[in-house]
Write a structure and sequence with these properties.
This protein is an all-alpha fold. It is built from 11 helices and no strands. It starts with 17 loop residues before the first helix and ends in a 7-residue tail after the last helix. The structure holds protoporphyrin IX containing FE.
Length: 325
């Protein structure tokens, strides 16, 4: 992977692209958060944590996606989106801290001044997780700004992705359930694969917009190969985590944790069916040059992106439940 500098926008006014939409959406989220923090911290904490988890998984996943051989097509739009996602992940991670303090204190914005609440929130794993994620996001941005040294850029990008994904291990139940080394290994493999899938599908959607003919065929064939390994890791890590977190199988139906996990599995199942239909039916046709198959794939990839976004948001709810009931 060669880091192509993200070009500045100049010249004729252009139509708004995905990064512009992300910037606009970020503005709306920040405004909503401010209102939510004043009205109901409990609601605000769900919004900010969901946003923080989504941007982290997206930034790490896109950083992995641009490193996959053959994915260099449409590098500039994907790198622009990666830059926006890394900056958003950095900002959102920092924002989770004041919300954690307000949540501990329970009095809304006034609680930010409470030393005890700050102490409790900042001593939790969340603080270390935020630092790790911010370090990873900075490395990704540095990789994008590194010109003429592809090896260094690639190393920075991969290390940044691993740090961003690794930051998820400071929260959630991986640190408190089962043999620590085993749960952390499952969680890391699962999180890397989840980022690979989500970031990969978003990156593919962006790249497919500009890729035509042979380029689109190469992109799809490379992506299909990469996804096979990703899905094996994802399912192995996810099932391992579920077995380690749930003390008994009946917890799947009798605890709120198990029920949220079942909802997550139902959505994952739906996305998997769509994804395998794409790979079995549409990808071979698109690789043979059928333009109608590429158009159908663009639509299906958009639906897959929405499905995976829902899975990530459900995961945020899952991580707040008690696996013990
Ligand atoms: C076979 C399907 C899956 C199963 C059984 C599964 C199960 C789990 C479990 C049990 C956890 C631990 C939550 C906790 O801390 O209590 C988890 C975490 C997580 N899952 Fe999944 N999951 C699956 C698919 C997915 C998919 C498709 C995505 C997104 C693309 C995803 C994203 C995540 C993320 C980001 C985490 C947090 C990081 C971590 O702790 O490893 N999962 N999953």
């Amino acid at each position: 992977m060669t880091a192509t500098p993200v070009p500045s926008r100049g010249g004729a006014p252009s139509r708004p692209g995905t990064p512009d939409l992300i910037a606009a959406a970020t503005g709306v989220v920040v405004a909503a958060l401010t209102a939510a923090s004043l009205l109901a911290v409990q609601f605000g904490i769900y919004v900010i944590n969901g946003f923080a988890l989504t941007t982290a998984v997206l930034a790490a996943g896109l950083a992995l996606f641009v490193g996959v051989p053959g994915m260099g097509i449409a590098t500039v739009p994907v790198q622009r989106l990666l830059l926006a996602a890394a900056v958003a992940a950095f900002a959102a991670a920092l924002l989770t801290l004041p919300f954690a303090v307000m949540n501990v204190d329970g009095r809304g914005l006034v609680g930010l001044g409470d030393g005890l609440a700050r102490d409790v929130a900042l001593r939790s794993g969340r603080y270390e997780g935020v630092l790790t994620r911010c370090a990873g996001a900075v490395m990704i941005v540095l990789a994008l700004r590194t010109v003429g040294r592809p090896r260094l850029a690639r190393g920075l990008q991969l290390a940044g992705a691993v740090l961003v994904v690794g930051s998820l291990l400071f929260t959630g139940h991986a640190r408190t359930h089962g043999p620590l080394a085993l749960t952390l290994t499952c969680a890391l493999l699962h999180a890397v694969a989840a980022a690979g899938w989500f970031g990969g599908v978003v990156g593919l959607g962006v790249a497919l917009r500009s890729a035509r003919g042979d380029d689109a065929a190469r992109l799809l064939a490379g992506f299909a190969r990469w996804m096979t390994g990703v899905l094996v890791l994802l399912v192995a890590g996810g099932v391992g985590l579920a077995l380690l977190c749930l003390s008994e199988p009946s917890g799947l139906v009798h605890t709120a944790y198990g029920q949220v996990l079942l909802v997550k599995l139902a959505v994952v199942g739906g996305v998997l069916v769509l994804s395998s239909a794409n790979h079995r039916r549409l990808v071979p046709l698109a690789v043979r040059g059928r333009a109608d198959a590429v158009s159908a794939l663009r639509l299906n990839v958009a639906v897959e992106q929405i499905g995976l976004l829902a899975v990530v948001l459900i995961t945020d709810v899952l991580m707040r439940q008690n696996p013990g009931g």
